[in-house]
Amino acid sequence: MSELLHTPAADLAGLIASGRASSREVTQAHLDRIEAVDAGVRAFLHVDGERALAAADAVDAKRSSGGQLGPLAGVPVAIKDIFCMSGAPTTAGSRILEGWRPPYNATVTQRVLDADLVVLGKTNLDEFAMGSSTENSGFFTTHNPWDLERIPGGSGGGSAAALASFEAPLALGTDTGGSIRQPASVTGTVGVKPTYGGTSRYGVVAMASSLDQPGPCGRTVLDTALLHQVIAGWDPLDSTSIDAPVPDVVAAARAADVKGMRLGVVKELGGEGYASGVEQRFREALDVLADAGAEIVEVSCPNFRYALGAYYLIMPSEVSSNLARFDAMRYGLRLGDDGTAGAEEVMARTRGAGFGAEVKRRIIIGTYALSSGYYDAYYGSAQKARTLIARDFERAFEKVDVLVSPTTPTTAFRIGERADDPLAMYAADLCTIPSNMAGNTAGSFPCGLAPEDGLPVGFQVMAPVLADDRVYRVGAALERQLADRWGGLLTDQLWARENGGAR
Amino acid sequence: MSVMAYDDVLAAFEPALGLEVHVELNTVSKMFCGCSTAFGSSPNTQTCPVCLGLPGALPVLNAKAVESVIRIGLALNCSIASWCRFARKNYFYPDMPKNFQTSQYDEPICFDGFMDVEVDGVSYRVEIERVHMEEDAGKLTHVGGATGRIQGADYSLLDYNRAGVPLMEIVTRPVRGTGAAAPQVARAYLTQMRELLRALGVSDVRMEQGSLRCDANVSLAPRGSELLGTRTETKNVNSLRSVERALTYEIQRQGEVLSSGGRVLQETRHWHEDGGHTSPGRSKEQAEDYRYFPEPDLVPIAPSRDWVEQLRGTLPEPPAERRRRLVAEWGFTELELRDVVGTGSLELIAETVAAGATAGSARKWWSGELARRANVSGVELDQVGITPAQVVQLQALIEAGTINDKLARQVIDGVLAGEGDPAAVVEARGLAVVSDDGALAEAVDAAIAANPDVVQRIRDGKLQAAGALIGQVMKAMRGKADAARVRELVLERLS
After folding, report:
1. B43-76, pLDDT tens digit by residue?
2. Would an 8 Å CB–CB cutoff place A206 in contact with chain B?
3. Domain count, chain B
4. What is the pTM of this model?
5. Residue A324 and residue B92: Cβ atoms within 8 Å?
């Protein structure tokens, strides 16, 4: 039974398709696992076992009646609780949406259901995806399976922790400034932010519309690519989605070949503020890729230094507008409606109590940045910085196929360590934000454990717009080379630790 | 409050007008989702995640709305932007599902146009600053108060059927140099705008249903001054007539304020149709900051030149040209034309002619009797309660000798009272001319017998005296006689 938990999604799909395992068995194994470990990990906000098993049974019935099964049919998946799912609680990690059940599916949710994946439940996140640790969740903090005293990254810490604790073989995330990649990095898992417009945002509770991007998470590069293939592609319901063929990420993940590729190391993403173990494992990964035939060059992206500052103007500006709809008038929390209070007072009381401190901070910053007289200095300048960052990428991609860096400057920090220091918290996204600002694609892949603390380090690969396949090609090559050295995945070491070294 | 006599204001001040016209487009679906725009359905039945602003929902632009607005812009002689964006106008109000309105701000799709209008034979150019797209809000119904307004209400009900209906706003530049004609110019502009929008087929332009709304701005400057005065914006002007009345009132009110040494406050004012005056709206202590920024959920609109030229080819004949052509075809005199334009009856005459009446008879009814009745009851001519087809029928009854002009007015009474078509009214009210010579002859004999002195005068050759006898006969017949036939009978008997 436990072997199913440890099996990659691609292989689980094979077992189910061939009848060697049923989707019900696989789903039940994961539900049991959640039951056993989630009290400690706290990856899930909601689990609906009944619904999951019914979906699993439907896949098994489809198979036995000779129906066509997709490449991930019957495989369980955990969904970050920011994707609308019809009839299922969807909170975005906020008390203000507690109890709300959307009447519709996000496009990504719909595609996952149409592909016969089995939804286990909804995973925890920082409130409205604002944070790097899940400590800003309106409900509770998720713990890192590598060390339960540490953060699992954020905002998608729930999805990443579910993968690392073997509660789910696949998960969905969204990435606005690194919310897929940074959690992947600190949990030793894989996460990819597709090209902006590559996956639909329809039905994803918005944080910052021009930056948000749904993406796949997994323990292996191929699993992640298979999920990417399921969810990506043009959606007429999202005007910003791109009407172009999805790059063949699955083929790239299978190829795992970097021979002749030029990898640009971003000079500005390293040095002061980066943990020595992070830099060490990153350098070793570069050597591994060089051995596999890649050419490594150094590239300068001088305008990346503006990325964090510009991000913290554009993102809150959009937040201040996107979160205005949570006003108690139509859905969600409603406070102070005693029959005498006017609508304005009900709105104010509901928002005052329903939003957490970080959400309020960003609404206030954004409201200020957009206000008349300050717009040009703040929002306007930030947009110019954004253009400069995009130009740095363009110039770099004239010389190299992909850019690489550590995913995040440090390994997982301790729960509570940065809770009172927003700027230290924001620094976790230093390396991931530029790709959100420019709209290109990027992914994080495990590259070892830092010697000083034994915690996972992530290797970030950034590729041009609509070249998502390159991210997978490099990530898969790294995974293959390192697996040869380690005898498996990084998460296998966690599995072995838990199971006394036996596999 | 007291106001200054209109002529006295105009002797000292020059008004400047500004008009913002909001038009609901008649697209089948809403601006950013597929919901129906049909008017009058049960509350909240025409809604979806997008127009309810549910978490995660995203807008998709209605291409038909863009097409309509470009056609309007072209018809108003505007330039069409080759690239423009939507913006978010942020403010909290329960009728706004997202608490921002998706609108256009500094990048309107159409700009720099004009419309020429005529008042009493003088042509005025109204310059159009911009035409832009936006979405409508939901509808609030305040329950429990005496007035139906929010003050004093116990609670409010929300209907989001209207939320997201495509709106277009047409904004003029300040219109100067109209002098005393300012309110009439405003009315003529609005009348012609309505004609144009109707001819384009882009809106129902029903002011009473709110598919055409107007905010009327006016300011006064001392005569000869280059500068504009402080303006007020009057809302709730729901008919062509009330635009003219509201502006006349505001000019008189501002004149009084300025002449008595006061200062006009820049404010929004509310027009009261019944009292014929304006009152200040809720005072805004400071200007609202809408925190506009480009809408990140929509991609820029970049209409290709080819498409714009293709749309230009679909424009109807411009109203001014059409008017000149029709008037020439109909052979109206200059004076008759002024009556037609002044009463806003051109389109109705055209429809009546198209339905089979002669231009002369159509003009006679619409610019005469029907315009008078619309004015008396304070409604628009096209809302007076009779259709062009009914006017055709009315005229046919006269020409067939079934009724005379006087009876026709009673028939109109019946039609306006909702008693049906003219023929049905004639039938129901028994209004047909009595053509039975027996009954007529009796009445004629009775009149002759009762008026020997008149009879004598006629016999003496004063034939015009017959009028008195005819009048008596008509009275006896309660108007239901053909006057020509009565005259024949009278003269026959006395010859």
Report:
1. 999 999 999 999 999 999 999 999 999 999 999 9
2. yes
3. 3
4. 0.88
5. yes
